[in-house]
């Protein structure tokens, strides 16, 4: 980019010098001499001001990068806040579900005569489910009413 600007300025200076030479040789009028001097002055001013313009351009570029970095930071902060809010709402929903399950279990247990009756009900339902899936269950009565689980290895 800088090389293109310098090349353009050099071309402008050459045009100015050519117009001044034409006017000094008497082949052109005063207008072309004035245009040549103006073009040369413009080229000199551009060459002198180029470093300052370059510094200003870099300053603007730096400010743009800072603004972009700040915007990206704000986006990340908002995304993190959204994730946090989502997690909090999911946790609240899970707590509400757990309270509902606990209340349902309490109602069923009370209806079946307390926790022992509820556990016996779940045990019977588990046996029914296993039988529906085609499992072979051999029940051997024991003192505690617990099944012998080793019998399933003999299949």
Report on this model:
This protein has 155 residues and is mainly alpha-helical. The chain has one domain (2-111). It is 79% helix and 0% strand. The two termini are 82 Å apart.
What amount of the residues lies in strands? under 5%
Shape call: rod-shaped
Query: Distance between termini?
Result: 82 Å
DSSP helix fraction = over 70%
Number of domains in the coordinates? 1
The number of strands is 0
Keywords: Membrane, Transmembrane, Transmembrane helix
Protein name: Membrane protease subunit
What's a concise summary of this model?
This protein is mainly α and 155 residues long. The protein has 3 helices and no strands. The chain is 79% helix and 0% strand.
Q: What are the salient characteristics of this protein?
A:
single chain; 155 residues; mainly alpha; transmembrane helix; membrane
Topology (SSEs and partners):
Elements: H1 2-24, H2 30-111, H3 115-132
Helix pairs in contact: 1-2, 2-3
